[in-house]
Amino acid sequence: MIRFFDFIFSLVGLVLGAPVFIIIAILGYFDTGSPIFRQERVGRNKKPFVLVKFRTMKVGTASVASHLASSSAITPLGNFLRRTKIDELPQLWNVLKGEMSLVGPRPNLFNQEELIAERDKLGVYAVRPGITGLAQVNEIDMSTPKLLAETDARMIKELTVGKYFSYILQTVTGKGSGDRVRGK
After folding, report:
1. How distant is the alpha carbon of residue 71 from its chain centre?
2. Which residues on neighbouring strands pair with residue 132, listed in sequence order?
3. How many C-alpha atoms does 13 have within 13 Å on its Cβ side?
């Protein structure tokens, strides 16, 4: 049932959001010269996939988890996109393709070994990663691997259609601040 909702909502979101995507891509082109960011992430069953987002950091910024990146790398447009979570919208393409869900554990990088080990222990990789979830609406990010893995496992175990919609609604209405970034 959730995959059905993922497919419908991502398709509708991509179609209705197309004008916004185009505007942000144009602004992003002037901001960084490369408005779309692609990065290999850990997917379901630990299979790699390429996550797409709007670029929020300068081109050439090290490929590390957000909490390890410097805030000086975030562009002015990127700061707005992160604050409003608009930078995540291109991931609707990943959802449509079945690589992600709207709700699930945030996909991590392959170099986040501590988080991978914690998630492995709890079976978190048995599901599709998501754009949002219990950890995100409670401001738990990848800087606390054990807590994040435990929260993800709890969300997976307790996920219902009602909670699926609740996490999406909480995210859209601004609950949770997104991944932290180190100060300058």
Report:
1. 18
2. 103
3. 19
Residue 183, both tokens:
């100060």
What pTM was computed for the model?
A: 0.88
The residue type found at 46 is K
pLDDT band at 83 (very low <50, low <70, confident <90, very high): confident
CA-closest candidate to residue 5, choices 93, 101, 147, 74 = 101
Beta bridge pairs of residue 40: 50
Q: What is the pLDDT of residues 160-172, one digit of tens each?
A: 999 999 999 999 8
List, in order, residues 6 or more apart from 27 with CB less than 8 Å away. 35, 77
Which residues does 163 contact at the CB level (< 8 Å), separation at least 6?
Answer: 103, 134, 155
Q: Are the C-beta atoms of residues 71 and 183 closer than 8 Å to each other?
A: yes
